[in-house]
Amino acid sequence: VQLVESGGGSVQAGGSLRLTCVASGDTHSRSCMGWFRQAPGKERELVSSIGTDGTTYYAASVKDRFTISQDNAANTLYLQMSSLQAEDTAMYSCAAYDGGPWFRSSRCPLIRSYQFWGQGTQVTVSS
Known about the structure:
By secondary structure, the chain is an all-beta fold. It has strands at residues 2-6, 9-12, 17-24, 32-38, 45-51, 56-58, 66-71, 76-81, 90-97, 116-117, 121-126. The protein contains no helices and eleven strands. A hairpin with a 6-residue loop joins strand 4 and strand 5.
């Protein structure tokens, strides 16, 4: 699975951005899709994920501000980010998890060890 993100950029606090991740290759091997972020000097964290059954997860820091969605026909994952804060500044990466044929997508919120990664897109929020 190859993943390519786009949509990052610089925005003022309170603004919005939409990140896009296009998947190619063996796109059937995607039990879960997720957005991670890593700020300088901080550990990478799972921001949001979505399973093939639509199960979603949001980190507490972004809940009610970010929305994850996917267009399976277009093999595209989105992250709509609103009310952005300076603390949201980070490199955002798209990732895919292949749990195998018996994996239950309801478990996606528990998954952190994704196998496939995009190159990342930078989001910078100025206050």
